[in-house]
Amino acid sequence: MRFSFIKLLLPILIGGITHTAFAQTDVANMRNSQMSFTRVAQAYAKYNDSLRVLFQKSGLSYPPKDLYIRDFKSQNEMELWAREKPSDPYKLVKLYRICALSGILGPKRYEGDRQVPEGSYFIEDFNPQSDFFLSMLLNYPNYSDVILGDKKKPGGDIYIHGGCVTVGCVPLTNEVISELYVACLNAKMNGQNYIPVSIYPTRFNKRGLDFLGKAYQADQDKQKFWVNLKSGYDYFEEHRKLLPVMYTPEGKYVF
User: Fold this and answer.
1) How far, in Å, CA of 50 to CA of 132, rounded?
2) 3-state DSSP call for residue 196?
3) pLDDT tens, position by position, 191-212
4) pTM for the full model?
5) Which of 83, 89, 127, 226 has fewest C-beta within 10 Å?
6) Is 161 labeled as catalytic in the residue annotation?
7) Quick count: other Cβ atoms within 10 Å of Cβ 243?
8) Which is the catalytic residue, given 164, 169, 184, 239?
9) 162, 171 in Cβ contact below 8 A?
10) Of 90, 89, 88, whose CA–CA distance to 67 is shortest?
11) CATH number, domain at 212?
């Protein structure tokens, strides 16, 4: 586990992602570096063409220009969305299965609590030689987590990864992480510096809200936190677009 206040200096307006293009040499260097690892090269060879067909069937160009990922802990589901330009609504590309879950519903608040974070994040790094096959680092803890979590040990090193085991990350099968890794890596090399990732306890529909209300009725802190997250969820459900994510000094999300 690790934590650095350097994370606080990273962009927090992750909903209004801008696509500042990499210099051509930077893209080439990243591609050469990633492809030098057998797992990445094999994943690219196996999934890149089928991903191209998948995106084209959704009316989207490939490699992707703008991706968005949504996770739902209670349903063990992950959605991959994409769009052509910032003014477009996102289109659902594929639904994946999250194959394991640790902890209970609710945000991560300290190192060792085995909780999968909840909130708004982005992919910070790509690890081609992970202990869990392939992995993509999330920028946990974000500003909200720093304010509301343990001040000394909020935890860290939260990944979307393969291996289908977890103590607080988002685990996928090796096949699924291979395909998702290729899609996200292509978006990164195509200029999307920060791929947003939203993690929710459940889908905030009637069934999900009824469950949260009954199962966590006594936990007012979680209830208030989920009401806060729901405003961003609702906007995306209505418009298929993301609002910029900002925070109050108390750690509340402002969408």
Assistant:
1) 23
2) strand
3) 999 999 999 999 999 999 999 9
4) 0.90
5) 89
6) yes
7) 17
8) 169
9) yes
10) 90
11) 2.40.440.10
